[in-house]
Design brief:
By secondary structure, the protein is mainly beta. It contains no helices and 14 strands. The strands form three sheets. Strands 1-11-3-4-5-6-10 form a seven-stranded antiparallel beta sheet, with no helix packed on it. It starts with 5 loop residues before the first strand and ends in a 14-residue tail after the last strand. The relative contact order is 0.31.
Length: about 170
């Protein structure tokens, strides 16, 4: 069972609060469990989190949330991710600078294929902050007591640029 995580305290001036990319490989260790693999600011306001859901329409779906008081951007995939034997490449791109942010502003790819079917899809307001540059962010942990039970590898956080998944390589099925 995992009992460690990485934590970074944000400091200095970010390149941008309106554009970013996260890319990582992960392998699930446990199903039917809310497992946050990325968490910013321990889910106090404002926050960002990326995790596998644990109940209802979120069970084993990927859930992304940016929250700041009443302003929220949220995606919950319709697709379920129940493979504990293979790795998933997850790439998430955020760009709230267009005058009407939409599905072209917030993109999620799993194994090189862009997710387009969501149970919930709420997009940011123009120039809304992505929240990764506020407070602490953790990889593989949540609130110093809940740990991701799988494996995370090749984690990239790119501040100031919204890249597509093919920037990080390709997946050969």
């Amino acid at each position: 069972m995992a009992t460690t995580y990485l934590q970074r305290t944000s400091g200095g001036s970010p390149t941008s609060n309106t554009k970013m990319t996260i890319s990582l490989w992960l392998k699930r260790g446990k199903l039917d469990n809310a497992e946050r693999f990325i968490n910013s600011n321990n889910v106090s306001d404002p926050y960002f989190q990326m995790y596998f859901g644990d109940s209802g329409n979120t069970e084993d779906a990927i859930r992304l949330q940016h929250y700041n008081g009443g302003s929220e951007c949220e995606l919950i995939t319709n697709r379920k991710f129940r493979d504990t034997n293979g790795y998933y490449h997850i790439c998430y791109s955020y760009d709230s600078t267009p005058s009407s942010p939409s599905s072209s502003s917030v993109k999620l790819w799993i194994n090189g294929v862009q997710e387009t079917s969501f149970a919930v899809a709420t997009y940011p307001s123009q120039n809304d902050s992505h929240r990764m540059n506020t407070g602490n962010f953790q990889i593989g942990g949540y609130n110093s007591g809940s740990f991701f039970t799988g494996i995370i590898s090749h984690f990239y956080y790119i501040d100031g640029t919204a890249y597509d998944a093919d920037t990080f390589g390709s997946v050969d099925s």
